[in-house]
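Researcher: Go.
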Amino acid sequence: MSSNYNYPLDTEYWSTEEIIDVVNFYHLVEQAYEKGVKQDDLMLAYKRFKQIVPSKSEEKKLGSQFEEESGYSIYRVMKEARNASSGQKVKM
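Model: Structure:
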């Protein structure tokens, strides 16, 4: 996959810290596809993502935009992460 794409971000409403945290989450989703990522790291980043994006519909919208841009599915990665045990590596 080429990483020449834009992350879906809400620069109008999110603070710089929130943007950094969401970008970190997107990066972990990419890593889950490319080389694997620790389940704990993914769950922690997702928890922070949900603090920034509490709305399920907004999460789905961002997830769809992210998948359209990158080819990577947040939904599938998080489903896999929820089924993994703490300390396990999530690899798509």
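Model: The radius of gyration is 12 Å.
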